[in-house]
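Re: folding output
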Amino acid sequence: MRILLVEDDFDIADALHEALTAQRYTVDHTPDGLDALNFLEVYDYNAIVLDVMLPGMDGVALCQRLRQQGNLTPVLMLTARDTSQDKVAGLDVGADDYVVKPFDLDELLARVRALLRRGVDRSTPLLTWERLCLNPTTMDVHYADEQLSLTPKEYSLMELFLRQPDRIFSRGVILENVWSLQDDIPSEDTVKAHIRGLRKKLKAAGAPAQLIDTVYGVGYRLNPRFSCAPGQEFESD
């Protein structure tokens, strides 16, 4: 999942960026409200962590602009101003939650997780395909009964494939979705290396060697050869 962090206090931004990345989110950061609008025109975000006091455009005005444009991305507002009027102003323009600085980091992360769960069908919160199962809440990934120990980038790749299991992803699209704007820009060979690592871990858990399929000249996908209805068996490599 991709989160936009809009915060002009770089100490706070660095701490939040590190904590959110450790939770396996892809995080883009900008300290400027107007720059945030530019980011939102290019990328689809699952949530926005938004400071109120910002250069360019303050957080209240930015949230109001988004809602007027029909953008319903969940917004968690941050502010050092602990008054009812400030909270009401933020909530009235469409913010989904409001946290006052200084905040407890674990509580803020829990609030982010709660925002990300909104709009999800709670009867089917798991991402499943064939014998793969990813739990976005606990961030556990299993193949059959075997838990996979994935790096943050491998986890993001797995989530990307499972959220759109019928899609072929080019290396460029993978780079856009799995690497944040603050990451060093990797080469497409980096994608190949992460795919190899993910395949190796899947195979060690008992998955077919080509569960992640290479469509030459196009990209990667979950191999439809191994997709089967519940209760059916597939032919392994």
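--- second protein (sequence, then structure) ---
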Amino acid sequence: MSEPTAGPPLRLAASLDGPAGKPVLVLGNSLGTSREVWDPQLPALAEHFRLLRFELPGHGLRPPSAAGLSAAGPRPPESPPSPYSIGDLGSAVLALLDQHGIDRACYCGLSLGGMVGMWLAAHAPARIAALGLCCTSAHLPPASGWLARADQVRTAGMVSVIRPSLGRWFTPSFLRSAPATVAAMAATLADANPEGYAGCCEAIAAMDLRPVLGSITAPTLVIAASEDPATPPAHGALIARQIGGARLVVIRGAAHLANVQAPGPVTAALLSHLAAASLT
């Protein structure tokens, strides 16, 4: 399936936090979540980086929390007409870098955020100093499933995808043991704009980044989760094999939102990778 024809340029809401003297790290979130999905990593990452976090179209409509860095940043604009492509999303991130005068940055992306990161590293290599890819895939068929989900939220609303999404995001034991975290993630998903969410589903449906993986030269860490039903470890292994010098780390006992369910190991792996890349 070919990517949708590009429409008007996307404008993404974003927040930039931290002293100007630090290197910039861009954080891309997953489908159905907001920039707050990175909250477990923020304290450690903020010690070393200036953090640029963006919202996917239609995401992050809930007022940000009052705690920590997540209190920064404006509400996102209304979702522009869909469908979108991964290239549309990547180009919008490049526009954010230009807007803030950032020539080169590190990038870490979760799921759809990781797909955007691969596009950036392949199509704008001079802008990406190092790449972290968490629970993501270069190709996620069948397209029909993504198109059906886009139709579902347009007709039945976001509430129709909450239960199955939580089942992919977290293991059964985490769903039972962390009800407050699960409820917060469900609320974020419920508040997403259906059209923006649907447009992102259509971007994934049309995506096949496998042909460009070999062109990525940024030092790359791929993080997979052993219990992830959405992007199983085999997807991460394929990415790591195709990107020269990439390293694969598998987080045991976590599902798709591994950085939320197992924040310690994910944070440690990211910091180790970024330090080794000599980004300062």
